[in-house]
């Protein structure tokens, strides 16, 4: 059970990091997101 909780927490942290970085990229260049 603890392994599942740790895995979910890890996924949540990675997801939040990707969300924040992706959000910043989208705001920085909304139309220049070719790459």
Describe this structure as you would to a colleague.
The protein is 77% helix and 0% strand. It is built from one helix and no strands. By secondary structure, it is an all-alpha fold. The longest helix has 27 residues, at 2-28.
The number of E-state strands comes to 0
H-E string: H
The quaternary structure here is single chain
* Overall average residue pLDDT: 84
Question: What Rg do the Cα atoms give?
Answer: 14 Å
- The percentage of residues in β strands lies in under 5%
Write the layout of secondary structure elements.
Blueprint: H1 2-28
Give me a quick take on this structure.
With 35 residues, this protein is mostly helical.
Kindly list the characteristics that best describe this protein.
35 residues; mainly alpha; 1 helix; signal; YobH
């Amino acid at each position: 059970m603890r392994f599942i909780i740790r895995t979910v927490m890890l996924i949540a942290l990675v997801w939040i990091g990707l969300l924040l970085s992706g959000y910043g990229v989208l705001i920085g260049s909304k139309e220049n997101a070719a790459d």
